[in-house]
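REQUEST ID: PR-0412
SUBMITTED BY: lab tech R.K.
PRIORITY: routine
TASK: structure prediction, single protein chain
INPUT:
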Amino acid sequence: MIAAGGDTAISPDNIDTSRDYLMVQEDGTTQSRAVMASKGRDGSIWRFDLNNDFAATRIVQLNPPGRDNIPVAPGIWESSGIIDSSGIFGRGSWLFDVQAHPPTTMPFPNTVEDGQLLLLRRVRSDEDDEDEDEDEDDCENNRRDSHR
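STATUS: complete
OUTPUT:
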């Protein structure tokens, strides 16, 4: 994805949205791996701010090698399946997995490859407290309106 001449997500794959953000995961392909390597980075998750002209921020980057210390080229590992989990874990939370493709060794016999399920949570700030108060006010107003 190239936005206004700026480099953002390479080989976008999985996406999901919340009320504030579009999340895009990069997928390493034969073509995109070379681009990632030239930028000195690995597969990432990008956050596009729906309330700020789609401003892009890379918020997650994979960091191989894994537990076996086998060197892994950029774009071999990937994150996948991102979903907004705000309803379960609070506003700004996301679930996604990491697929640790070979050459990373499989963790146990009869498994295909290594991986993890991860919970991504935002760091709270003072502004978040104000947002939470507004959200609570909105919920209270909605409750009152629904009983009229």
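NOTES: The CA atoms of residues 141 and 147 lie 10 Å apart.
REVIEWED BY: pending
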